[in-house]
Write a structure and sequence with these properties.
- The chain is an alpha/beta fold.
- The protein is about 25% helix and about 25% strand.
- The chain contains seven helices and 14 strands.
- The strands form two sheets. It has a seven-stranded mixed sheet, with helices on one face. It has a seven-stranded mixed sheet with strand order 7-8-9-10-11-12-13, with helices on one face.
- A hairpin with a 2-residue loop joins strand 1 and strand 2.
- The radius of gyration is 17 Å and the shape is globular.
- About 40% of the residues are buried.
Length: about 250
């Protein structure tokens, strides 16, 4: 099993002999423009993909399926809608399947609870994209657990730490957990994805799992960078099982 971070939440998970593209944001640097309710004038995404357009096309030709956790543009952008094969298997929460189909995708596999695809069991999980009024405005978000006979990995998606994440970890007992770090925060309200403190809580609860941190240094409302989070990981002596992925990095997962 391998995990490759392209940028932000866009990952390629190789599991069960299949290449699964997760939350594709494929547009050029700045293509999403300004994000609302931020305290800066930065254009999103802040960085380009770690390879050329030509290589992107080659990499997409190797993808066996796409997974979309939710429809925020830093997880599912217009470029992805434009260039992805409309016949590729596309797994998503049942609640967003109809909206995705309106973009011309014809091989959608809606997930209500769990599905078996090829030799991989895929379970949908719950998330919480912030608290209070901001959390309500961010809408429903989900994650996914991917399991084979030998491997298991939990992609939390855009969620803060709360009791629901603990419940999903207890339920699925994943070997690997991917979290969205960066403490993305608008000008009002609390963070809408995990802070460094949240990540430490994940590590301490899932004491046998490896934790992988994504969603860093790519969108303008994130407040914590790789260096800050790495320091917190080291302060808590978790550097042997909590890792920060770099854009374009591939890791082999035991």
């Amino acid at each position: 099993m391998t995990l490759e971070l392209w940028r932000n939440a866009t990952l390629v998970l190789q599991i069960g002999g299949k290449n699964i593209l997760i939350d594709p944001m494929l547009g050029k640097k700045g293509s999403l423009g300004l994000f609302p309710m931020t305290d800066n004038e930065l254009l999103n995404p802040l960085v380009d993909l770690p390879f050329t357009e030509e290589i992107l096309k080659e990499r997409l030709s190797e993808i066996d399926a796409v997974v979309v956790t939710h429809l925020h543009p830093d997880h599912w952008d217009e470029k992805a809608i434009e260039i992805l094969d409309k016949n590729i298997p596309l797994l998503c929460p049942e609640s967003i399947a109809e909206q995705i189909s309106q973009s011309g995708f014809t091989n959608i596999i809606p997930v209500k609870d769990a599905v078996a695809w090829q030799n991989i069991n895929i379970s949908m999980t719950e998330g919480r994209h912030g608290t209070g009024e901001i959390g309500e405005k961010m809408g429903v978000v989900n994650g996914f657990v991917f399991k084979t006979e030998e491997k298991s990995i939990y992609v939390v998606g855009d969620s803060i730490w709360y009791e629901g994440i603990a419940a999903e970890i207890d339920r699925h007992q994943p070997q690997h957990i991917i979290v969205a770090g960066g403490a993305a925060t608008f000008v009002v309200g609390d963070p809408i994805i995990m802070t460094a403190s949240d990540i430490i809580k994940v590590c301490k609860l899932a004491s046998e799992a490896y934790v992988w941190v994504t969603h860093l240094e790519a969108v303008s409302h994130c407040k914590e960078n790789r260096s800050f989070i790495k320091d917190k990981i080291n302060e808590n002596n978790l550097q042997d099982r909590c890792f920060i992925l770099q854009d374009g990095e591939t890791r082999f997962l035991d």
